[in-house]
Amino acid sequence: MIIFTLFTIIQSQIAQLSLNGEGLKEQLLQMIDENQLDCQTIQLLITRGFGQQILDLITTDSIILESHLQCAKQSIQNDLLQLESLKKRFTNHENHVLIKPIILWAQSRANILIKVKFAHRIDAPAYISVKNHQIQYLNQNLQISAESDQNNILTKFYLEIPLLNQVDKTIGWQVESVGTMVLNITKIESKLWLHLSKNKNDKFQIWWDLKEQIGKDMEDFSKMLDNQEDHLKNKKKQQKKSDSSQQSSPIKTNIFVAFFLKFKQWLNKWF
CA angle 188-192-194, nearest 5°? Predict the structure, then answer.
């Protein structure tokens, strides 16, 4: 309490000094005599704009002790490091990294749940300090964006999904564990979707961890996926069989033609 009161008095004394250094020399001498001139006071003087006056007193009057000079030097170095750090952040923000977040999704007949992981792949650690989350639904496109300045490098996350069917424009979302968030989307029409996106090239992993929590709808969804997979397999088999049949027909024709020509040559030879 005594130390805090003493420093408050020193702050008050420094506040009364003018920027032209009036009374500064006498004040510093008094502080040195009373052993009040510590690192904190030196730093306070520098931040209040008395850095040049202190340097002048060092060179002309040599009234600053070496230990105090080291404090002043350290304070200036710290300020320079902070400025350099800000400069790096500004430079890196100009050249930001753009990443698509990882998506897992599950559904009931009424809702879609989407887990967003802000990472460059599913098995990578999520980014920390993710901020500026934005979720928008425009023209049936779901837009997800956020950013992180981890390691002083600005990383922007952005993903746009053309949803398979229409949903309610009011989308609920909340930040979960570090670097993840969950979206709760209400469907306009109560039914299961075979895909999340209209774009067939979009392959989003299923959030199977919610299968027990959601229950029957996720079981029916699983059956839909199995039926679709079986349908695609059968379609490939039929296509392969059809291609094989089309290829074998010309072969049979060619064999018959070759046999006929050979037979004709034999007849011409003997008759």
Answer: 115
